[in-house]
Amino acid sequence: MAARSTDEALLARALGEAPPSDALSEQILDAAREQFMTFGLRRSTVDDVAKRAGVSRVTVYRRIGNKDGLVSACLLREYRRFVVEVDEAVAALPTTEDRIVEGFVAVLGHIREHPLVGGLLRLEPEIMLPFLTVESGPALVAMRGYVAGRLREARRAEGRPEADPAPVAELMVRITVSFLLNPVSCFELDDDEQLRAFARRYLVPLIAVA
């Protein structure tokens, strides 16, 4: 249980400040998630979310913020959830290489199939784009920090010299995000085996300099 708590604490630190976690804020984010999944971002307003949550518009603004704030908070909460799932799925694998490969497969697969994130990427990619690029700075930094932390732990466990893994971690995060935003590519990444082959050929070699 202590190891699990340590992992959750690491994830919380790596993914930035914790989102609002009181019952009312969670209620608003739950409503936002349902609203965005049902009607998309373009057709949803703060008033729609407030009505679905059973609160006033002012309460939404005070607790979470404007519409962009709602989208960001909602997405960040989903990121936290699936990163925990991915982390647990790869934790028992024997090597760093295996964890990188299976982590890449799990992240792409999870996001593509995710009812909120994947659905919005398919239906409203032009609206989702800012939340994964220009407005995703904190999320990108957080994910880079998380991956870098895992690479650093692997180096220590393997007795390798200390080095800054942040550049390699950022490359891994940016590569993954690029395939989510634009899956059209000369690489064949249609199934898990193709994703594994890509990760082993192009991502695993990066850890030699991490």
Helix percent band:
over 70%
What is the succession of H and E elements?
A: HHHHHHHHHHH
Number of strands: 0
What is the gyration radius calculated from CA atoms? 18 Å
Average residue-wise pLDDT:
83
In short:
72% of the residues lie in helices and 0% in strands. α2 (23-39) crosses α3 (46-53), α7 crosses α8 and α9 (137-157) crosses α10. It has 210 residues and is mostly helical.
Q: How is the secondary structure organized here?
A:
Blueprint: H1 2-14, H2 23-39, H3 46-53, H4 57-63, H5 67-90, H6 96-113, H7 117-123, H8 125-132, H9 137-157, H10 166-181, H11 192-203
General description of the model:
InterPro entries: AlkX_C (IPR040611), Homeodomain-like_sf (IPR009057), HTH-type_TetR-like_transc_reg (IPR050109), HTH_TetR (IPR001647). This is TetR family transcriptional regulator. Residues 22-82 form the HTH tetR-type domain. Residues 45-64 bind DNA. Helix 2 (23-39) packs across helix 3 and helix 6 (96-113) packs across helix 11. The longest helix has 24 residues, at 67-90. The radius of gyration is 18 Å and the shape is elongated. With 210 residues, it is mainly alpha-helical. It starts with a helix and ends in a 7-residue tail after the last helix. Helix content is 72%, strand content 0%.
